[in-house]
Amino acid sequence: LTDLIVEAIGPGVLDDPARIVELAPFADDPAFRERYMAIRRTNKVALGRLIAERLAVGVDPESLYDVQIKRIHEYKRQLLNLLETIAFYNAVRAQPTHPWVPRVKVFSGKAAAGYRQAKLVIKLANDIARIVNRDPVLRGRLKVVFLPNYNVSLAETIIPAADVSEQISTAGMEASGTGNMKLALNGALTIGTLDGANIEIRERVGADNMIIFGLDAAGVAKRRAAGLDMTATIEASPVLAEVLHALETGMFSPEDRSRYRDLVDNLRHHDYFMVTADFDAYWNAQRSINALWQDREAWARKAIANTAHMGWFSADRAV
Fold it and tell me: What angle do the packed helices 296-308 and 279-293 form, to 10 degrees?
């Protein structure tokens, strides 16, 4: 992408981060859009090759690459992403002939050594991957991968290949994450809560070029004040109820059917991080992404807009 931008705008662009905004009009140039997306596809092929080498899982670069790479923590809500993954899996199995948008769910990140709940989330991601990736009914329309040993070198391959950037922390708890900036700069569309740097990114790239969902910080505080028991919330969401039933009955851990019962019980009765409270909004936001993905020209325009307006976050400008 750097070479394409320099060619389009001129060699001085990298010395003046403010000039990156001049890229925005190129979103209207069909030839530029085609080259931009071709570069992104090459990056997706490279990530697919790495996934095959490390996990022996084949992924299709024509699929939507949905990426969440960050420290594993309850407030960062990898669990919310995994619950939606199960819901999508259930939906595809229920309607195998429906024209689903194929997805590759990519997870990576490290957990603190003594953080049991975070390590259980990693276990769940791998358990889901084991079941989903072997299911012939899906015919490749959903793949789940957890890439181990996350580091900068791995990020350098994942970030340029991401179509969707998961920035879904509980509103009010993400202080200053910057991974979302790297992903947006490379053309990923952010799906996230109105929190942390998502707020600043929205100001720069435009609300139409990212997907915001769920409770804001004030909404989280109000919901917590009303109590953390989510039994009624879960009962009101058939999709979520089905997902939690699958988890607590061992659908993804047949060798240990009780593995995730405590996790589900915690979601029912003490959901401090608002996973269940935000689930329906997140599920609906993901469906809107599917609809957008089917209009590839519109998607390319939004991806370019993200790259074009991220110059504001340059360290050079900040200094």
Answer: 110
Whole-angstrom distance, CA of residue 28 vs CA of residue 56: 39
pTM score of the predicted model: 0.94
Handedness of CA 128, 131, 137, 138 (dihedral sign): positive
Q: Tell the residue number behind the tokens 């024209």, with chain if given.
A: 99
Distance between CA atoms of 302 and 168, rounded to whole angstroms?
19
Per the CB < 8 A criterion, the answer to whether 123 and 84 are in contact is no
Per-residue pLDDT 10s for the chain (319 aa) are 778 877 777 776 656 655 655 677 888 899 999 999 999 999 999 999 999 999 999 999 999 999 999 999 999 999 999 999 999 999 999 999 999 999 999 999 999 999 999 999 999 999 999 999 999 999 999 999 999 999 999 999 999 999 999 999 999 998 666 889 999 999 999 999 998 899 999 999 999 999 999 999 999 999 999 999 999 999 999 999 999 999 999 999 999 999 999 999 999 999 999 999 999 999 999 999 999 999 999 999 999 999 989 888 887 777 7
Whole-number Å distance between alpha carbons of 228 and 208: 33
